[in-house]
Design a protein that fits this description.
It is built from 14 helices and 22 strands. The termini are far apart. The protein folds into two domains: 10-446, Alkaline Phosphatase, subunit A (3-Layer(aba) Sandwich), CATH 3.40.720.10; 467-567, Immunoglobulin-like (Sandwich). It has helices spanning 10-18, 53-61, 75-84, 88-91, 122-127, 180-183, 205-234, 262-265, 292-300, 371-381, 387-390, 421-438, 446-453, 499-502; strands at 29-35, 63-69, 131-135, 151-152, 167-173, 241-247, 269-272, 281-288, 326-330, 340-344, 348-353, 399-403, 467-471, 474-478, 485-491, 516-517, 520-521, 529-530, 536-537, 543-549, 556-561, 566-567. The strands form five sheets. It has an eight-stranded mixed beta sheet, sandwiched between helices. By secondary structure, it is an alpha+beta fold.
């Protein structure tokens, strides 16, 4: 297969779009097809056992990226980096997870208070005229403001966008998630005898079964990709849309997920461009999950905020300096605390363990539901694991160095081998520079971090109530809270009259009410518009619903009826 580094500009993309047979938006449509918890176990990356014809077809028509890594080996911190373009360790979204089931975490649920200037990147797309939908997982370590999506939920669809409006849409496929290793009971699709068991696992019937389950789920996920592609073709948007396919982090199995080793952070990543531009080629640049947000903005022609720690690898704002290194962090996992940092170049991976007195293994209750995890512990306790498999249960050294090309399973720690001194020095230096540049909140005890986020209070801070000011035939909105995102909806006079349907909280994204109240039909909720300091025109009797929120703060609401000159 021809190998070349893709260099893509918005200008060339625009020319390709213009050559299409259908009318095109002035800016490209962009779709993310995301799946969960898989390493590159797909045919396009050379896997001969797992059958993924639909994903492989995207690769044949698009570009396969070989060196893409997430900023964490688990979903919520990783997803926080996707949506913000920031490292979780630098903005307080590092612990897995902040909002969740109390039995899986030692602190109360909290929505991380991130720096005030940071937004979820779809808000910038919406301000630039994009229609943004998410179907449907978020899991960003914080509650997102209402300004992030036009629609979010199982019914969210780019199909609802106004005519000729470009869209950004996410479709998340859940079937490969870790939980599906023990909750699914449908038939397995692979021959267990053909599965190659890595040396860090005992070769048992249970291990082969669970690997078969993961690979079967990947094959079924591929069918879902095929169904989605068929829908895009039917809707006439497949050939005029930039399509991303990737996983939120590495593999779902024990000693894969949650780790910031190769198997926990290396993901499949494919982009198909309109007109199959550069189809069938390979990109070997180093790319991090923090780069996804600025790259989408670059492709859409939207200015990348200066604060973003990621860098664009495509579009008019593509970084002139390709990455040499990617970085990742591991911190609390459910109830168990750890602190590990990783830096990797094309060949070598360096790990720094802040808590070397602890073993690699953590007794995570959720993971104990995976059958092979239970068996792993039984074999450990009965002395039936070899030295490679037992390494998971030993205490960590302070530093680790692996030649990932020669040792893809990361078994042989080269930290004391003088032959690799130059490589070790380079990675150590990169780690320190990164740490000093972006910062690291992992050294702050989590409870202290929460107190800092909450300004010493026992409850999260409250966004200031948005202020509405009459200006001629309309209104303006302001909010004193620095960094607050402000969204608004207009309910036309006579559309809805009952208090419960005037409630902001009841008007969820894209919810359709088929109810008649007092003889009036309650219609689909209008989207939350992103306020951009404009004058909002209102007619007498119109109701304005306003929601303001800084990320991590409690939201503030305001209702205003034009003509009454008073808030309800």
């Amino acid at each position: 297969m021809l190998k070349k580094i893709l260099s893509w500009t918005l200008t060339s993309l625009g020319l390709l779009l213009a050559e299409g047979s259908m009318a095109q938006p002035s800016r490209p449509n962009i779709i993310w097809i995301t799946c969960e918890d898989i390493s590159p176990f797909i045919g396009a990356y050379g896997d001969t056992l797992v059958k993924t014809p639909h994903i492989d077809q995207l690769a044949r028509e698009g570009v396969r990226f070989n060196y893409v890594f997430t900023a964490a080996g688990v979903c919520a911190p990783s997803r926080s980096s996707f949506i913000t373009g920031m490292y979780p360790t630098s903005i307080g979204t590092l612990h897995m997870r902040t909002i969740g089931d109390p039995k899986y975490q030692p602190v109360p649920s909290y929505s991380a208070v991130i720096p005030s200037d940071i937004k979820c990147f779809p808000e910038y797309l919406r301000k630039a005229g994009y229609y943004c939908t998410n179907n449907e997982k978020q899991d960003y370590q914080f509650v997102p403001p209402v300004t992030v999506w036009d629609e979010n939920g199982p019914a969210a669809s780019y199909r609802d966008r106004p005519k000729n409006k470009p869209f950004f849409a996410i479709f998340n496929l859940f079937i490969t998630h870790e939980s599906q290793l023990f909750s699914r009971t449908d038939s397995l699709l692979l021959d267990p005898e053909k599965i190659r068991v890595p040396p860090y696992y005992p070769d048992t019937k249970t291990v082969r079964h669970d690997m078969n389950r993961l690979f079967t789920n990947i094959e079924r996920m591929d069918n879902q990709v095929g169904e989605l592609v068929a829908q895009l073709k039917k809707d006439g948007v497949y050939d005029n849309t930039i399509i991303f396919f990737f996983s939120d982090h590495g593999g779902a199995l024990p000693w894969m997920k949650r780790e910031i080793l190769e198997r926990g952070t290396h993901i499949p990543f494919i982009i198909r461009f309109p007109g199959q531009a550069n189809g069938g080629t390979v990109n070997n640049e180093m790319i991090s999950g923090v780069d996804f947000a600025p790259t989408v903005l670059s492709l859409a022609g939207v200015k990348i905020p200066a604060y973003m720690q990621g860098q664009a690898f495509l579009g008019t704002q593509k970084s002139k300096t390709p990455r040499q290194f990617v970085f990742a962090g591991r911190d609390r996992m459910d109830t168990e605390y750890d602190r590990v940092r990783m830096v990797r170049d094309r060949q070598f991976q360096y790990l720094f363990n802040y808590l070397p007195d602890q073993p690699y293994y953590q007794n995570i209750a959720f993971r104990l539901s995976v059958p092979m995890m239970k068996e792993f512990l039984i074999l450990r306790d009965s002395g039936q694991l070899d030295s490679v498999q037992m390494a998971w249960f030993r205490n960590k050294p302070v530093e680790e160095l692996y030649d990932v090309e020669k040792d893809p399973h990361e078994i042989h720690n080269l930290i004391h081998d003088p032959q690799y001194k130059n490589e070790l020095d380079a990675l150590r230096s990169a780690f320190r520079n990164w740490n000093n540049t972006v910062g690291d909140m992992g050294g702050i005890p989590e409870k202290d971090m929460i107190r800092q986020m909450w300004n010493g209070m026992s409850v999260p801070p409250q966004t200031d109530t948005p202020l509405i000011r009459l200006v001629g035939g309309g209104v303006t909105i302001s909010c004193k809270t620095k960094g607050a995102s402000v969204g608004y909806r207009i309910i036309k006079k006579g559309q809805i009259s009952t208090p419960e349907y005037l409630s902001i909280q009841s008007w969820d994204y894209g919810t359709v009410f088929n109810t008649v109240k007092n003889g009036q039909t309650v219609v689909k909720a209008p989207v939350w518009e992103v306020y951009q300091d404009e004058i909002i025109p209102l007619q007498r009797g119109d109701t304005l619903l306003v929601n303001a929120m800084r990320i991590g703060f409690l939201p503030a609401e305001h209702r205003f009826v034009m003509g009454d000159h008073a808030a309800l």
